[in-house]
Design a protein that fits this description.
Organism: Talaromyces atroroseus
Pfam family, one: Glyco_hydro_64
Strand content: 25-35%
Number of domains: 2
CATH class of the largest domain: Mainly Beta
InterPro entries: Glyco_hydro_64, Glyco_hydro_64_fam, Glyco_hydro_64_N_2, Osmotin/thaumatin-like_sf
Keywords: Signal
Number of helices: 9
Largest sheet: 8 strands, antiparallel
Protein name: GH64 domain-containing protein
Structural class: alpha+beta
């Protein structure tokens, strides 16, 4: 979500990542700053910091405000944090309880050593009723965090004068905030594009959150999120599946003192564990798919100007007409993540490649290639997804507990046949937003 500076790359390489022993579930052991794992997913990087940015904050203001309302359905002790970057320079900024922006700074000494931010950043959420939060100006690539307790955020300075704000990580069992029940929604509010927000389970399932966006004409969009007890239900289902197929689905569950806090997506789990146990999960299926499309053409409906394109396998390579890249056999990690190996994309790729990658990866995760009609992707309805093994069982189970079926559970969960009204995106957006409402702890009772 946030760009990775040269410093962050170097620091990530310098921090030792010790593979965790596979357990069922994974036990959390909250640590301190020395236990942080710093990567692109959980950092906001900047070059202007502290007082230098604060001096220009007034000029950068949008002269508009955005109202966030929070309905708390989980109980006492809930705090909110709004963390993003300034659209006019990229400086990290965090909303204070008085609804003004705090621009973190980092010391010029202790290069590469994470320093905890001690500024009061927690915005208390009312135990009952509605809490109103005012966002005073535009913000880019933001997260609205909610936690039952207090989260820890850090800054780290690089040798070239840049710095990063380090946010809690769901994939590090020793993160200082690992023992806190938390979750976040992502949003941006920009002059040109208005508000875009989403609930997503691509990386993990945590504290259930739901969205509702009302625009200035009264129109409402919703993404209701997960059931109140979805985390434990998802974990129970994954534990049952581990007993069936022998793969460590139960290790995706993260617990502390017997309480499940979060459930990792398999891609995040594989990245955090060098010997995850999932390495060969899709191997036989990939071989079957390759064998099938050696003799039978695969049609990709690009759902755009290239139209339908034909793909065939020759040897170990899948090639599609009009595609600038051929496809090698994807690994299990490639399939779960949809962004590595044969699924890498770049802006210079042809329209065929940019369309084929999401459709191929979606078909692997949903295991639809070898079903009747699977020779055209996408063409099958949602009722056919995840009906055969192997599939992305995490994604299957997450969708089971979504209140309205909305919320990505893998990167290309928005791939659907033409004419379909299925929508798993979990996003809300408006050029003229009025109120972004967030529900914490599951949807409110009717």
């Amino acid at each position: 979500m946030f760009g990775l500076s040269k410093f962050a790359v170097a620091l990530a390489a310098a921090v030792s990542i010790v593979p965790q022993a596979i357990a069922a579930p994974t036990e959390l052991h909250p640590g301190n700053a020395s236990n942080l794992i710093i990567d692109a997913q959980d950092t906001i990087n900047g070059t202007i910091q502290g007082t230098a940015m604060a001096a220009s904050a007034t000029a950068a203001s949008s002269n508009e405000t955005l109202t966030l309302t929070v309905t708390n359905n989980i109980g006492s002790g809930v705090n909110c944090y709004v963390v993003g970057s300034d659209p006019d320079g990229g400086a990290p900024m965090i909303l204070k309880p008085d609804f003004t922006w705090y621009y973190p700074s980092a010391p010029t000494t202790d290069i590469g050593v994470p320093q905890e931010i001690t500024e009061d950043l927690a915005i208390p959420v009312s135990d009952s009723g509605e809490t109103t939060i005012t966002v005073p100006s535009y913000v880019n690539s933001a997260r609205v965090w909610f936690a039952v307790g207090e989260l820890k955020f850090y800054t780290v300075t690089s040798a070239d004068g840049g710095f990063s704000v380090v946010q809690p990580s769901q994939s590090n069992p020793e993160d200082p905030s690992a023992g806190i029940n938390w979750g976040f929604v992502e949003f941006s509010w920009l002059s040109a594009t208005g508000v875009y927000a989403n609930v997503s389970y691509v990386d993990f399932v945590g504290l259930p959150l739901g969205l509702s966006l009302t625009n200035t004409t009264g129109g409402v969009q919703t993404a209701l999120g997960l059931e109140a007890d979805a985390v434990s239900k998802v974990c129970d289902d994954l534990t049952a599946q581990a007993a069936v197929d022998g793969y460590p689905w139960d290790a995706l569950c993260q617990s502390i003192n017997g309480t499940v806090m979060r459930v990792l997506a398999p891609y995040d789990f594989m990245k955090a564990n060098s010997s995850s146990g999932f390495e060969d999960y899709f191997t036989d299926y990939v071989n079957e798919v390759w064998s099938n499309f050696t003799d039978t053409p695969l049609t990709i409906d690009t759902q755009n100007t290239p139209g339908n394109v034909t793909c065939t396998v020759s040897g170990d390579i899948l090639g599609c007409a009009g595609d600038n890249v051929n496809y090698t056999k994807p690994s299990t990690e490639d399939i779960f993540g949809c962004s590595t190996g044969p699924f890498v994309t770049s802006p210079s790729d042809t329209k065929v490649h940019q369309a084929a990658v999401p459709r191929l990866c979606a078909a692997f995760n949903r295991a639809t290639f070898l079903l009747d009609g699977g020779n055209v992707q996408p063409s099958l309805p949602e009722s056919d997804y995840y009906t055969t093994l192997p599939n992305n069982y995490y994604s299957k189970v997450v969708h089971k507990y979504e209140v309205d079926g909305k919320g990505y559970a893998f990167s290309y969960d928005d791939v659907n046949p033409s004419g379909s009204d299925e929508n798993a995106s979990g996003e809300v957006s408006s050029l003229k937003p009025k109120v972004l409402a967030i529900t914490v702890g599951g949807p409110s009772s009717a």
